[in-house]
Amino acid sequence: MKESYKIIKRPVITEKANVAKEERNQVVFEVARHANKVEIARAIEDLFGVKVEKVRTEVQTGKRKRLGRHIGFTQTWKKAVVTLGEGEKIDFFEGL
Q1: What is the pTM of this model?
Q2: Which residue segments constitute the domains of the chain, with CATH numbers given?
């Protein structure tokens, strides 16, 4: 198994992610592009000690950006929406 810290890069903390966390018990993470759903679920269970019910993945394509006359793209990244088991939760801002 690959290292869990190489699979899970960071949590995505946006308004939409917070609504999903409160209403549907889902947490959103940025993950490695090569990781599949099984590896993502195992990494979340290993790192946070919670039960994962379902994982949905999505590849976010880079946005077109312009700096003067030069045009480029931001980096393409992979997002995972993880549905946690009943009664499970992950709190990123403990003690703040």
Answers
A1: 0.87
A2: 4-84 (3.30.70.330)
